[in-house]
Design brief:
Order of helices and strands: HHHH
Number of strands: 0
Number of helices: 4
Radius of gyration: 24 Å
Helix content: 40-55%
Strand content: under 5%
Low-confidence stretches: 1-33
Shape: globular
Structural class: mainly alpha
Distance between the termini: 92 Å
Amino acid sequence: MPHPPHQSLQAAAVQSLQARPAAVPKPRVPAREEDGPWHAEAVCRRDEAGLFFAPSKEPTAARLAREEAAKRVCARCPVMVACREHALLQPEPYGVWGGLTAAERRVVLGRRRRRAAELLPGAGTPPIAAAG
């Protein structure tokens, strides 16, 4: 059935699903495993994606303002920690994830690497000279 040109694609899809006979089950969209269950609860799914990722050649002042606005969204998100860990484990090279910019995530990853190196047995202690 043709839809008026002003009708959104989403509204057309909803009408199409509603027009199906009741005996036909609605198709299930499988969850992507890499997203994990936290992804569905992310507050940013309801916000403008442009807030979290920089446009090309963005002026510094605009970038800083946009990143702060994105961090405010992250601050009220119930899955912020899971999102941050996802971004650190991937690692995600761009955008604001879990309240951290790409540069802030690089700092966290550097600290984690240094801490892990310090915890290794024998790390940071000079080798013992052989008696001879």
